[in-house]
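Reminder to self: keep the SMILES exactly as supplied, no canonicalising. Ligand is NAP.
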Amino acid sequence: MIQQLSPAPVTVLGMGPMGRAIASAFLAAGHPTTVWNRTADKTNELLARGAVWAGSPLAALDAGELVIVCVIDANAVDAIFDRALAEPGRSRLPVTTLVNLTSDGPGRTRELAARADELGVLYLDGSIMTPAAAIGTEATRILYSGPVVLFDRHRHTLAALGGAAVHLGDDPGRAASFDIALLNLFWTSITGLMHSFALAARQNVPATALAPHAQQMAGLVADLLPGLAADIDAGRFSGTESASLTSVTASLGHIVHALEEAGVSPAVTQEAKNAVDAAVSAGHEGDSAARLAEFLGRGHTDRDPQAAG
Ligand SMILES: NC(=O)c1ccc[n+]([C@@H]2O[C@H](COP(=O)([O-])OP(=O)(O)OC[C@H]3O[C@@H](n4cnc5c(N)ncnc54)[C@H](OP(=O)(O)O)[C@@H]3O)[C@@H](O)[C@H]2O)c1
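Structure tokens returned for the bound complex:
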């Protein structure tokens, strides 16, 4: 006879848009869900749907085997630990698995993991790659890192968040390393897109007229991405099959000029041009764009072409 396991109890700390979406997905999947937030009234809707109010950070951490924290940054997680430890007689926290779905940098995340370890908490890190509205749907994508044994123990419960859950390795900072690189891609792309809309608008081209062409251009970036990644990892930088950095810097120069002519700040594009110029000055003029990843990764900034080598 197949035994049906009842959904495991979970606790969620942090009731911003993401924390609420997480708690909501657990409730929808039938998990008994305890919640806590610094500002209590943000939990009202979830309490009306059957969630239980924890009362304090310590009670929340003590409420069950699996605790999720999703707050603004690692400092806020530290503040929650501090509040729990402020209760009389506490020098350690309850032994529980804490899945930290708060975004922060890899270094800060490792510090937090080390502190959690010292305090007796079993720590797994996670980076959410999708917006709050996607939580509980197939579109969810969450990257995890930390002890694989914790991931395996709780993956069935975490599946309530929907979509794909990918474990990247035992280093607790690894998911944050992916997260920060992907967020850099996302926000520099969005900034670049807004910059292009601004330039187009100054030339009486509405954003909606440019949009289908911009979409095609963004698709080109997505198409080029796997080949560039393979070239970077293999150390192949020849620009003879694609645009050389000499050609790229000329093109960026025309764009900077057009931006100035249109009265739009060229700062975003000028920064990109500075990086390419530094690589060209260092002798990489015949290389492809893949060289930039290697060049900037050596620690060169776009401001030190003299130091480049
Ligand atoms: N929203 C999204 O679509 C999305 C997508 C991917 C990843 N994320 C990540 O998910 C995390 C949470 O995001 P969010 O959108 O829910 O909202 P958020 O604005 O990033 O964080 C709000 C939450 O942090 C709490 N908080 C802030 N400072 C605190 C402190 N010192 N002590 C205790 N709690 C503190 C807030 O409590 P109060 O209510 O009391 O202020 C609230 O619960 C972030 O790291 C974010 O980068 C969000």
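Points to follow up:
Residues 305-309 have pLDDT under 50 and may be disordered.
The beta strands are 10-13, 33-36, 52-53, 66-69, 97-100, 122-128, 141-145, 164-167.
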